[in-house]
Amino acid sequence: MVTMVTPYLITSYTIVVHEAEEGGYWGEILELPGCVSQGETIDEFRYNIREALEAVLESESQEPRREIYTEPTVKVSDTWTATE
Question: 34-54: per-residue pLDDT in tens?
């Protein structure tokens, strides 16, 4: 069986913010792997992560991703022998 997965619009995202060891902040959007940003202040981070989100959403709207999943085929033998 083949299943097609089409991305759908999410109206809210989970953003995890971290304080950077060298100062400032960095964070990621959990629903969009690879969508990360940073900023020297929390306000700069908020601005930058919004820009990153908009860029990802724009690129996905231009080239929608379609992932194809297939069930693995497993061959089962009629007989088998267990050894000790």
Answer: 899 999 999 999 999 999 998
